[in-house]
Amino acid sequence: MSQMILRTGMTGRPSVRLNGWPWLLPVLVLLLWFVAAQQRWMPEQILPAPSVVAETAWSLLSGDLLAQWGFSLQHLALGLLLGAIAGTLLGALFGLVPAAAQRVEPLFYALAQIPTLGWIPLFMVLFGIDNGLKLAVIVKTTVVPMTINTQQAVSSVPLALSEAGRVMNFSRWQRLRWLVLPASLPGWFTGLRLALSQAWVSLIVVELLASSEGIGYLMLWGRQLFQLDIVFVTIAVVGFSGMLMEWGGKPRLFAAGVLAAAGSGSSGVETAGQLARAANYPLFCWCCGSSRPSGAGLMGQLFSSPLAVGERFVQGVANGELSAAMLASLR
């Protein structure tokens, strides 16, 4: 199963590399599964035999499996495309325009800290439980890593390249095309790889919660019918898809890292000024929400005024509900 190769490195010490060991754990798990099914360690309805799961997989291949898998991949591709475009543009804006980063970046990072599952109830109200919900969740999941990695990649262009562009009298467009874009590609691909894995997980979660199609819906359907062989097949498909995405998301051509330029410190006055500028956009949103007429149509019913939210926040702190909920979440 495994092949041992003995090599001598630069230091003269022999090094051992074992080929085939990555497959050892899956084989052991499969053997344990086979023995457990044969010895009836668990009821057959809960732990079907590998042969039963294989027969179910073969029958599903000519049925709904490929169709549901295709639905999931279509939603993933469209949501990933939209999220990657939005995240790339937003990250490039933060990295190339410091003024935009100072004003919008704090609000973006505050919203990014909210888990994707926390947005699902609001997305259900806004987009329903159809395909719009899936796209909204995938786009939100994709935008965050794409924005962060694109911003870091754009702002970490080596200083030597910037100086070379000034010496050659490059225009802003030429610097962006010939210097910034090639140097930021490794970081951009890293963000795309992270976004792909997170978007796939989020899509499966949404299909389990609220969907009428997709591989997650097929998994939920098998669980409701207590046909765990279907559940095992869908788990294998989800894991196999994730493995393919992980393997395909390693562009060795762009594996070289980018040297970050040395940053400079800032004084306390500059820091205070940055904090004041960062608060401009949230204050603007607060004023717009406060000036909204009460009961203004559907949006007035969906979104409470900032004053009402603030009053509810103060009440939650005063009566202890907010602190109790936070302690329950941290346990």
TrEMBL record:
Q: Which Pfam families does the record match to this protein?
A: BPD_transp_1
Primary site of residence: membrane
**UniProt entry keywords in alphabetical sequence:** Cell inner membrane, Cell membrane, Membrane, Transmembrane, Transmembrane helix, Transport
What Gene3D superfamilies does its record include?
MetI-like (1.10.3720.10)
Domain named ABC transmembrane type-1 is located at 65-246
Q: Which domain of life is it from?
A: Bacteria
The record lists the membrane-crossing segments as 20-37, 76-101, 107-129, 225-245
Q: Which GO terms describe its biological process?
A: transmembrane transport
**Bilayer topology annotation:** Multi-pass membrane protein
Question: Where is it found, in Gene Ontology cellular component terms?
Answer: plasma membrane
Q: Per its UniProt record, what CDD domains does this chain match?
A: TM_PBP2 (cd06261)
The record's subcellular location field reads: Cell inner membrane; Cell membrane
InterPro entries of this UniProt entry?
A: MetI-like (IPR000515), MetI-like_sf (IPR035906)
The entry assigns this protein to a family as follows: Belongs to the binding-protein-dependent transport system permease family.
Q: Which PANTHER family does the UniProt record give?
A: ALIPHATIC SULFONATES TRANSPORT PERMEASE PROTEIN SSUC-RELATED, ALKANE SULFONATE ABC TRANSPORTER-RELATED, MEMBRANE SUBUNIT
Q: What is this protein called?
A: Aliphatic sulfonates transport permease protein ssuC
The gene that this protein is the product of is ssuC_4
